[in-house]
Amino acid sequence: MGIRERKERERERRRQQIIVAAKRVFCEKGFNRATMEDIAKEAELSPGTLYLYFKNKDELYASLSLRILQYLIIRLEHVNSNSELNAEERVDALVEAMFDVYDFDPLIIINLFHLQSSETLKNLSEEMLGEIENLSRKSLSAIADVFRKGIDEKIVLDRHPYALADIFWAMFSGVILWESSKKIINDDKDYLKDTLRAAFEIFTRGIKCQGTLQ
User: Fold this and answer.
1) What DSSP letter does each residue of 118-185 carry, written as one string?
2) Does a structural domain hold residue 177?
3) How many folded domains does the chain comprise?
4) Residues pairing with 156 in the sheet
5) CA angle 168, 174, 179 (to 5 degrees)
6) pLDDT digit of tens for each residue in the chain (214 aa)?
7) What is the phi/psi pair of residue 45, to 5°?
8) 52: left (phi over 0), alpha (psi -120 to 50) or beta
9) Residue 177 lies in domain
10) Which of 15, 30, 102 shows the shortest CA–CA distance to 60?
11) Domain CATH number, residue 7
């Protein structure tokens, strides 16, 4: 291993160390109360070291979303590339993929939804913002492809596939944010997956052509 490669590997290791520490701090204190000093202490690094890797707290917060978006794309590509699935089965596989993405890291998926609806995006570097926009665009395109194939096979109602993808994503994020906020107030109210399952069932029944997607 060359010196350059070793330095790059060490830099990535340190970056991941900071991200892991940030996730713990954000989970414990929330975004508003957490400080870069808190994160530095958790990572056992100096505050100055954090700024060598991240422009500010907003960018560090946003970086947590990259991993979940990358995993989402992997799952969606797997759904679309499975030639053994017909259009109806592909829609079912899409629904299960979304549950899988949520289970992959519930905290980070919630973090992503908060990020998309906040002012934080305005405080990101062009590079970070571009990466998030690129991954988000790929995700939406992959979801739209599922519906496009359903429309082509006359399983799904003939509506713009990107409109269906937008509604699907809005429903997914909305249910998760609403149910997770209720759980903060009352920890006994853990109905997220049941509510999400009902929402997906209503959605898939609503977009089906007559006699399909039973």
Assistant:
1) SGGGGGS-HHHHHHHHHHHHHHHHHHHHHHHHHHHTTSB-SS-HHHHHHHHHHHHHHHHHHHHHHHHH
2) yes
3) 2
4) 208
5) 130
6) 678 788 888 889 999 999 999 989 988 888 788 899 999 999 999 999 999 999 888 888 888 888 899 999 999 999 999 999 998 999 999 999 999 999 998 888 888 887 777 677 778 888 888 999 999 999 999 999 999 999 999 999 999 999 999 999 999 999 999 988 887 776 666 788 999 999 999 999 999 886 555 5
7) -130, 165
8) alpha
9) 57-207
10) 15
11) 1.10.10.60
Distance of CA 84 to CAs 78, 81, 128, 144, Å? 11, 9, 37, 19
Whether 17 and 40 have beta carbons less than 8 Å apart is answered as no
Residues in the chain: 214
Cα 125 to Cα 116: distance, rounded to the nearest angstrom: 15
Please give the structure tokens belonging to residue 68.
């979940």
Question: What's the CATH number where 101 sits?
Answer: 1.10.357.10
Based on the domain organization, do 119 and 175 belong to the same domain? yes
